[in-house]
Amino acid sequence: MIKTIQKALQNSFSFAEYRKHIAHLITQGKSTGHEQSDDLLHYSELNETRMNRLEKTIVVLPEIINKLQNLEKKYIWLVLSEGWCGDAAQIVPVIHKMAEVTDKIELKIALRDDNDELMQHFLTNGGKAIPKLIVLDAESLEFVADWGPRPHDAKQLIIDYKATHGVVDETAKIELQKWYLHDKGVSIQQEIMKMQERV
Predict the structure, then answer these.
(1) What CATH number is associated with residue 11?
(2) How many CB atoms within 10 Å of residue 16?
(3) Contact status, residue 65 vs residue 117, Cβ threshold 8 Å
(4) Domain with 45 in it
């Protein structure tokens, strides 16, 4: 898997580059990814607004900052994402804020559709669900842990909704976005930190 990881890292983005790339595509009427549609473009535009807001409002918890700054080793956090993904728009800015508070974490973002070989190693129930955070040893590039595509309670919300209504429709997506709004990135920070502490 090391070669696949190296390939993904070679064509990855910093968070600033990722944001710029998505914004540039939107000006051309496009979304990231190999599939193009009006819906995906619309979601990308919505997500731009969400990410702009989150960059201004997300606060990393003091205890999380402390733990991140005191990690014993350096890691690369490689995130598989796409600009049209609603979960990614809520989660990737939080991961970015976490990486910003420590010199122990380097954040890289790779597009899912451009890195299918890597995505195949991190399927969720057989699907290419994103975002997926892949934790790598910074020196060896060896895989050490992964997290995603959603915090536990957000995942449960969708499972419960599907059990009740039989589908994941627009209403479910709105409920999910409300959950993220109220949670303010706290669950994401806590779950990722728990995962990082186990490595």
Answers:
(1) 3.40.30.10
(2) 9
(3) no
(4) 2-149+187-197
Say what angle helices 186-197 and 86-100 make with each other, to 10 degrees: 60
Q: How many residues does the chain have?
A: 199
137 and 128 Cβ atoms separated by less than 8 Å: no
Distance CA 123, CA 118 (A): 10
pLDDT at 79 over 90: yes
17, amino acid identity: E
Place of tokens 């535009």: 45
pLDDT of residue 1: 87
pTM: 0.96
Residue 199: the pLDDT is: 86
User: Quick check: is 47 in a domain?
Assistant: yes
**Coil vs helix vs strand at 105:** strand
Task: Give the strands of the sheet with 105-111, arranged side by side.
Answer: 105-111, 75-81, 132-137, 143-147
Q: At what angle do helices 152-165 and 170-183 cross, to 10 degrees?
A: 160
Round to whole Å and give the CA distance between 149 and 80.
10
